[in-house]
């Protein structure tokens, strides 16, 4: 066994001791951070963030722009008697660079769960072999910018929303659309404007359709690692420039540094079960491309977990849509048998989307057979062969 | 009536997925698989089998069912509150082959071929039950353990089911009890179990020892 478990075991012990030793200080700073959250003047913070933006002062972190009081909590309304929740998720067999055949597989899973007078469920998957130039490249005319890595990830997100939107067209009850993961596709941030626009076009089309149908959309992020609100508190505390911490002599310096390690999910622990926070705007650069579908977010206690929920602003601005979404998400979590809870519509969508190792091998074999029938051989790299055979 | 589809098959038994969740055919009841004529018979085969168990489990073997009841939601209401269960659970049943009908002749021994995978399973009509159970030779095929349900329980369940389907046929019941007594003459405890399961009011160790059956 090449992995030296004994070594790791010793290091593990050190790690556990280090975490335990720092726990009291962490708890102390968390308490101070929560006090800070309660005492912040939302208008003043918003103005400060806006002023820094207009002055082009670089804030080296993602920050949250509060749409209202930071410590406000909103209880979940009751869901309607009849309603549906459509969850979607996606997975892929990515392009294999060790193979001479260029293709990838997208598998979008969705679950339509309807509650009320006529309970019903549809659990489905839409699978597609992508092998043509328009599938393989962002700019197929020039065979430029291959869709792989983060671009394939973004393509999966967009495709899952597009497919689930098409699947829900026959529903006549109030419906919400839930996506597993963010709506803010920040992984595209470093791509060129043309690439962003090409990939986001389908996302916005699906969002347009949902808006016309009156279906609120949300990205559901469990165990979120976001620190946007904590970062805003750092800006609030900052007496100078947020990008010049090394010169800081503020008495809040230690708290500010501690906030860099505090997650928003810990700040919003004061939310009671079912309650959501106020809406926040995000400073993510990718949102500059979102236009009418710019995304806000809120935190919510779904029971044993504070989750982040991302919604387009047209949802946040409509009290009915936001209320329906809030109620349905909490209702989903109350129906979940898991602790912490997780929306059944997303769980079932995931089950539909997942591609097993056996299925991956099956597709690979089918591709080789199909090419073989047409007299074509699939070549694989020597490195790939050596990993598969592992001879001694 | 078609009630399920075969998902595992052997020379002695098969497993079928039930079309209706939580409703496998009754334990001990007769089911029929119709096989088209490829084996030299003019009209095909009707394979007869006795249901030996039923179970409802997660569709995906790696997903176990979990508790979902609350103070206010329990039993049938759980399925209304969690409509996805109809798609994530499955009910299956096992059936032991006990004979077949070929060219209108009832044969009570194992067929030469197992029933084909994915073929439909039907409930046996009253007429089919009556015709097949006129002879009791098939009961000895139920003495072989096939699964978790002990053979005496399967035997007794079959006798109860057939007795009712034959229109509370007392003569048939007496004949079946005698046949079982003969088959289990060397296993007194098993015989008692079967007879008690058929009619607890009339069975005691002394009735068996006294030769009343």
Keywords:
A: alpha+beta; nine-stranded mixed sheet; two-stranded antiparallel sheet; 13 helices; globular; B: 213 residues; six-stranded antiparallel β-barrel; 7 helices; 7 strands; 26% strand
Describe the structure.
The complex is a heterodimer of chains A (392) and B (213). Chain A has 392 residues and is α+β, with helices and mostly antiparallel strands. Chain A is 43% helix and 19% strand. Chain A has three domains: 36-71 and 227-262, no CATH class; 79-224 and 269-356, 2-Layer Sandwich (Nucleotidyltransferase, domain 5), CATH 3.30.420; 360-385, no CATH class. In chain A, helix 4 packs parallel to helix 5 and helix 6 (228-237) packs antiparallel against helix 7. Chain B is 29% helix and 26% strand. The chains are: A alpha+beta (392), B alpha+beta (213). Chains A and B meet through strand 4, strand 5 and helix 11 of A and helix 1 and helix 2 of B.
How large is the share of residues in beta strands of chain B?
Answer: 25-35%
**Structural class of the secondary structure composition of chain B?**
alpha+beta
Number of strands of chain B: 7
Task: Indicate the percent of residues in helices of chain A.
Answer: 40-55%
Q: Per CATH, what is the topology of the largest domain in chain A? A: Nucleotidyltransferase, domain 5
SSE layout and pairing:
The complex is a heterodimer of chains A (392) and B (213).
Chain A: H1 5-39, H2 42-54, E1 64-66, E2 73-74, E3 83-93, E4 104-115, E5 120-130, H3 133-136, E6 137-139, E7 144-146, H4 150-167, E8 175-180, H5 193-213, E9 217-221, H6 228-237, H7 253-259, H8 264-267, E10 276-277, E11 280-282, E12 295-301, E13 306-312, H9 313-316, H10 319-335, H11 344-353, H12 357-373, H13 382-389
Parallel strand pairs in A: 3-8, 8-9
Antiparallel strand pairs in A: 1-11, 2-10, 3-4, 4-5, 6-7, 9-13, 11-12, 12-13
Helix pairs in contact in A: 4-5, 6-7
Chain B: E1 2-9, E2 13-18, E3 30-35, E4 45-58, H1 76-81, H2 85-88, E5 89-102, E6 105-107, E7 120-123, H3 126-132, H4 151-165, H5 170-183, H6 188-198, H7 205-209
Antiparallel strand pairs in B: 1-2, 1-7, 2-5, 3-4, 3-7, 4-5, 5-6
Helix pairs in contact in B: 4-5, 4-6
